[in-house]
Amino acid sequence: MRILIVNPNTTASMTEKAATAARAVAASGTEIIAATSRMGPVSIEGHYDGALAIPGLLAELKERQGVGYDAAIIACFDDTGLEAARTFADVPILGLCESAVVTAGFLAQRFTVVTTLERSRVLIDNLVRRYGMGDRAKVRASDIPVLELEDAASGATGKLRAEIERALLEDGAEAIVLGCAGMTDLARELQEIYGVPVVDGVAAAVKQAEALVSLGLSTSKRGSYASPLPKPFTGAMSGFSPVLKVG
User: 114, exposed or middle or buried, with CB in 10 Å at 0-12, 13-18, 19+?
Assistant: First the structure.
């Protein structure tokens, strides 16, 4: 099977980091295809960035339909554009936050999501509640700008570890979820250090995508995720106009 991973920000190094993590857990028959958005913010930190990242994300999903993919993963823990992508696509689309918190729920009664900035913490806390895990999970911010995760000299790893230690001590966390795609390369090391499950959203999404494809399941096109109605879009959005599907 072919799984497309789309980074909805425009930083290629983050795409490669996510692709490496995905390939490390993918089954032998799974091909990982990585794509970086070509328009939008260099990192996604809050609602404004997320809104402006969605057109680039949808453009990548649309363009790569020609080569084909069996499922797609949005490589941002804010689940940026997830609902729109599920409406647009005819294959399973997974978000990192939803995949990670569902996985953590299999492993622990109480867990903590450790993310980057406070503005992201609030957004992710709302997602966790929406996904039905509000009573079991706490979300913490480690005061790390996303792009600092790409700089080994930034001290970001130390900040992340300090917040994980507070989560274990103060929250009684039984597992940790890494709340940013830029943290994906740290999961195994942190699990060894702290002796609790550390869930990376990229890895979790890959295994869930493989399961859905293997089961022959995809997003329902009845109701909420029905294909968009054909209509003209104007201005810079004209290229996104839905067309009538035949057959």
Answer: buried
Q: At what angle do helices 12-25 and 201-214 cross, to 10 degrees?
A: 60
What phi, psi does 99 have (nearest 5°)? -60, -40
What are the phi and psi torsion angles at 140 (to 5°)? Answer: -120, 150
Question: Which band of pLDDT confidence, cut at 50, 70 and 90, is reported for residue 243?
Answer: confident
How much is the pLDDT for 153?
Answer: 83
Model-level pTM? 0.94
| Burial class of residue 133 (count of CB atoms within 10 Å of its CB; 0-12, 13-18, 19+) | buried
Per-residue pLDDT of 182-227, as tens digits, reads 999 999 999 999 999 999 999 999 999 999 999 999 999 999 999 9
Q: Which residues contact 221 (CB under 8 A, 6 or more apart)?
A: 90, 227
Tell me, letter by letter, the H, E, C secondary structure of the chain: CEEEEEECCCCHHHHHHHHHHHHHHCCCCCEEEEEECCCCCCCCCCHHHHHHHHHHHHHHHHHCCCCCCCEEEECCCCCCCHHHHHHHCCCCEEEHHHHHHHHHHHHCCCEEEEECCHHHHHHHHHHHHHCCCCCCEEEEECCCCHHHHHCCCCCHHHHHHHHHHHHHHHHCCCEEEECCHHHHHHHHHHHHHHCCCEEEHHHHHHHHHHHHHHCCCCCCCCCCCCCCCCCCCCHHHHHHCCCCCCC
**Is the separation of the CB atoms in 93 and 72 below 8 Å?**
yes
Q: In 3D, which of 50, 106, 103, 108 has the Cα closest to residue 77?
A: 50
Statement: residue 23 has pLDDT above 70: yes
